[in-house]
Amino acid sequence: MNLEEKQYLGILASKREVQESQFRDVAYVNTTNDMQYTVKVLSKDGFQQQTISGYINCFTEDCDIEEDYYLPEEERIDNFLSEVEDKLFMFSYLQKAQKFYNISEAQLIPRPVSFNRTDKFISVPVFCSKEDKGARVWEQVNGTSLCREYASYEEFVERIAKQQRMGYIYGYDMEVTEFPPFVIWKEEDGTLFAVNTITGWEETLGKELVLRGSDLGRYELSQHESAVVYNEWVNPTILFLPEQVYQLIKEEMTGKNEGPMPIAFKATAVMKDSAGVEQEELLLSSMKHYCQELDLQYKESDLENFHTAVKCSDLVVLSGMSGTGKSALVDVYARTLGVSADNKQLLFIPVSPAWNDDADLLGHIDLVNNVYHASDTGFVNLLVEAQKEENKDKLYLVCFDEMNLARVEHYFSQFLSILEKPSQGRELILYDAQYSEKLENATEYPWKIAIGDNIKFIGTVNIDESTYHFSDKVLDRANVITLDIMDYSQIGLEERYECQLDKKWTVGEYQAMVSAYSRNQELRRFLWEIHTNLQTVNVKLGIGPRIVKCMEQYLANLPEGESIRLTMDEAMDYQIVQRVLTKVRGPETGLGNLLGNDPEVSILPIFDKYSHLSMFKKSRQVVEDKKKELEVYGYCV
After folding, report:
1. How far apart are CA 171 and CA 3, in angstroms?
2. Burial zone of 245 (CB within 10 Å; 0-12 exposed, 13-18 middle, 19+ buried)
3. DSSP 8-state symbol, 204
4. Three-state SS at 409
5. 256: which residues sit within 8 A by CB, 6+ positions away?
6. Interatomic CA distance for residues 327 and 310, integer angstroms
7. What's the confidence (pLDDT) of residue 457?
8. pLDDT of residue 176
9. Nearest to 377 by CA among 395, 361, 392, 357
10. Which residues pair with 97 in a beta bridge?
11. pLDDT tens by residue, 190-230
């Protein structure tokens, strides 16, 4: 999730706390005649600011806080204070400037009986039955699903043991929050239990949580009830515990207070069973068969790299000179999965250089004739079909052919924002909802379309003088795979592959090959060192959390089996090329030292330091190629 969606706990700041901050007052009417206030942050895991500013219009609608702008300022302030001074704030934040944040999406909740404003609070995930009334009401109000698939505590524990999906936790950011050694189970009558021992966690591609646990037991929280901050109407999936109560519960459940429990990290599949491994091996064998059938030649590791990227990336881009078989590889993959243009599950979209906004790809609303005109690309029609209930288990492939003939961030702008969201929250807006009752074909083209996991997006690009280069906004969301021309004199001499798997894949069968997300701490240390060096050269260069998580997802999803050629060493190398080095570009003045041998700045010594992860052969070659570009042109792309 985005950091801006994480939920924090706070309280209206005191006069002294405001004096120690950069803010003006506890509550005041600012120069734009808006009520502004200062909140003390109570969450332990958060940003560095001790206080944060908010506006009255950042409260959600159900808070029912109204302001009369015609009253004197003092009366407006007194009215506001009377509404909030005995409450806690549960909020997200919005970054407004480089150092300062503002509150976003604030809600008010009651203080617990034994509240102490000097306490720091730790958030803990909460789970409940799929029949829980409070959670179901919350789902209806918020128009989303928690995906709870268990009806009792016993079923909940059983799913932990089997490492199955547990559903969603909203407002809890796995990137910045240390996962606790226990979670909370809520009974229908409201009783809360701490469930231990949780030894690890992962996130699936769809952002659902998977827990690992051992010797699971539960501990009733009734004796700590007066200190718990929990409101199921605001968010049924997390509660807040004072730090000292959190530590006490750990001590009472384990018999000793041993500090934060380590999270188990690994970069191997954790959800794929033997059947999934076997099916994936057969799928890749079928890919190789179709390549030979069509007289196409690719490295086997490139095929495995492409398949891994597609199954765990939002967007895969195939790059290379004309004739390397980029579009043909998409066709091979479609044949392997059993999707085609005939069954309306495969769509090739030739990108036009004239495209300059998303209307060229999606279409536009015609208010004269009260109809929606979908573009003749067929893209919207495919999306509408894919979201239908009867088609949600069908796979769809969309290929944007020569996608950089126009600026991707212009015609693909809405999708670049959509693809970073969890699969349950991806919605494409075709037109404003107010027109849905006026358009004659609104049933055929609804105002918003859900973009599910059953659609895979692929692009092909040529890099020459007729094309645009990708912006960082695109590169952050894409696995960019460069295909090399193979030795075509050897076609027909290699091992022959029989088509061992001739089938039409469903989403369920495809997802069975997908492993849950898991952190890789050694990878993170390696990437942080590269990020630090990139930042010394150019503050606009770097490796953000999104890229790190995507790389971890990729490495956790490497195919397994005796016939697989792609090793962990090569995969790590591929990801540095595809996710990091694509962003290293610019003039010699900025990149010369970075690509050189200066141990203080260069990334080459970092490759040497982490040679136990990979030899980084392709990465080193890319660095050498970029160095040559700098020598010849003074600039590299």
Report:
1. 9
2. buried
3. -
4. helix
5. none
6. 14
7. 94
8. 58
9. 361
10. none
11. 889 899 888 888 877 777 888 888 777 888 887 788 889 99
| Residue 465: φ, ψ to 5° | -70, -10
Token code pair at residue 392: 């949600």
Across 381-420, b (16+ Cβ under 10 Å) vs e yields bbbbebbeeebeebbbbbbbbbbbbbbbeebbebbbebbe
Cα radius of gyration (the chain): 27
Mode of pairing for the β-strands spanning 121-128 and 238-242: antiparallel
- The closest of 232, 225, 233, 126 to 184, measured between CA atoms, is 126
Token couple for 329: 């590889």
Q: What is the DSSP string of 79-97?
A: HHHHHHTTEEEEEEEEE-S
Q: What is the pLDDT of residues 407-424, one digit of tens each?
A: 888 888 888 888 777 666
**To 5 degrees, how large is the angle CA 174–CA 180–CA 184?**
100
Determine how β-strand 315-319 pairs with β-strand 455-461: parallel
Neighbours of 254 (CB within 10 A): 14
Q: CA 562 to CA 12: how far, in whole Å?
A: 61
What six digits make up the tokens of 554?
A: 């990729």
561 in the Ramachandran plot: left (φ > 0), alpha (ψ -120 to 50) or beta?
left
pTM, full prediction: 0.61
The half-sphere exposure of 452 on its side-chain side, counting CA atoms within 13 A, is: 18
Using an 8 Å Cβ cutoff, are 325 and 298 in contact?
Answer: yes
Low-confidence ranges of the chain (pLDDT < 70): 1-4, 46-48, 96-100, 174-178, 254-276, 422-424, 464-468, 489-501, 517-518, 590, 637
According to the model, what pLDDT value does residue 453 have? Answer: 86
Residues in the chain: 637
Looking at residue 322, its pLDDT comes to 81
Q: Are 375 and 440 in contact (CB under 8 A)?
A: no
Q: Which of 257, 187, 179, 198 is nearest to 220 (CA)?
A: 187
Token pair in block for residue 438: 């006026």
**Distance between CA atoms of 541 and 537, rounded to whole angstroms?**
8
Q: Six-digit token pair at 540?
A: 């606009």
| Structure confidence at residue 3 (pLDDT) | 46
The Cα–Cα gap between 194 and 562 comes to: 43
What's at 187, amino acid-wise?
E
Q: Are 461 and 408 in contact (CB under 8 A)?
A: no
The DSSP bridge partners found for residue 222 are none
Q: How far is CA 243 from the centre of its chain?
A: 29
Identity of the amino acid at 616:
F
pLDDT at 100: 66
Could you give the residue ranges of the DSSP H alpha helices within 294-355? Answer: 300-312, 326-337
HEC profile of 335-346: HHHCCCCCCCCE
Closest by alpha carbon to 170, among 90, 95, 246, 244? 90
Distances (CA, A) of 545 to 210, 293, 550, 615: 20, 41, 9, 24
> What are the tokens at 557?
């999803």
- Angle (CA) 317-318-323 rounded to 5° is 155
